[in-house]
């Protein structure tokens, strides 16, 4: 019997890469999906391509959409990325790095890809603990999207394909995600989590994502091979 197919949303960051490794460990044939959404930098797509090649996925699609036409985020407009924020500030409100409706859009594309592939499984590396308070990373959102998906597709209506959204990291701390990735031999050195890398794709070490990542590695008791030069 052939392995079941799964669409895995892949940003090239630590969380999505660990999620991809989990999908492979669970014996899925992985179809990775990334997005060129005219984000602040293209370094994350280069990281996603490195990750897809490392894991030898069945297919890696990069979909082009333009979220800059709406803006509203430091990742899709000229708004500055916050730097050196204390951890207690990161836990207050929704940060300016939140991209309006991004995960709703990404999951919709993943749903379309899965339907064409005949796949009932979609993996996304959302995390509700150490993810800066993004509303589209919460379990309530995922459950609602899954319910919608099974009302909105041919397979769902005909009862031939029931969509399942897998969120294996949603209740884990960053340190727990890193320890799990370490056990799965995730190549953290080729991942990129930074919101504002330099022209060479090197992480800044100062944005919320870099700080949370560095804190996670510290709490996990492991060095971060992707941040050898960072001050944090």
Q: What percent of residues adopt helix (DSSP H or I)?
A: 25-40%
Question: Averaging pLDDT over every residue, what do you get?
Answer: 92
Strand proportion? 5-15%
Q: Which sheet architecture does the biggest sheet show?
A: 5 strands, parallel
Coarse morphology: globular
Radius of gyration from CA coordinates: 17 Å
Number of domains: 1
Number of helices: 8
Find the CATH topology.
Rossmann fold
User: What is the fourth-level CATH superfamily?
Assistant: HUPs
Strand segment count: 5
**What is the CATH class name?**
Alpha Beta
List the strand order in the largest sheet: 3-2-1-4-5
- The ordered string of helix (H) and strand (E) elements is EHEHEHHEHHEHH
- CATH architecture classification name: 3-Layer(aba) Sandwich
Structural class: alpha/beta
State the separation between the terminal residues, measured CA to CA. 48 Å
């Amino acid at each position: 019997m052939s392995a079941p197919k799964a669409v895995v949303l892949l940003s090239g960051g630590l969380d999505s890469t660990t999620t991809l490794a989990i999908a492979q460990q669970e014996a899925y044939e992985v179809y990775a999906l990334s997005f060129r959404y005219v984000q602040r930098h293209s370094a994350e797509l280069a990281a996603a391509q490195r990750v897809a090649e490392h894991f030898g996925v069945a297919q890696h699609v990069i979909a082009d959409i333009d979220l800059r036409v709406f803006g509203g985020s430091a990742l899709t407009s000229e708004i500055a990325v916050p730097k050196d924020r204390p951890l207690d500030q990161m836990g207050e409100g929704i940060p300016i790095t939140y991209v309006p409706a991004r995960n709703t859009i990404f999951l919709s594309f993943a749903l379309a890809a899965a339907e064409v592939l005949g796949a009932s499984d979609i993996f996304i590396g959302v995390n509700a603990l150490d993810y800066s308070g993004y509303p589209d990373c919460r379990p309530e959102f995922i459950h609602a999207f899954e319910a919608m998906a099974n009302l909105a597709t041919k397979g769902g209506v005909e009862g031939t394909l029931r969509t399942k959204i897998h969120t294996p990291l949603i209740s884990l701390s960053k340190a727990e995600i890193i320890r799990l990735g370490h056990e799965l031999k995730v190549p953290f050195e080729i991942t990129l989590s930074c919101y504002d890398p330099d022209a060479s794709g090197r992480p800044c070490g100062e944005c919320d994502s870099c700080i949370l990542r560095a804190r996670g590695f510290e709490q996990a008791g492991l060095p971060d091979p992707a941040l050898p030069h960072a001050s944090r």
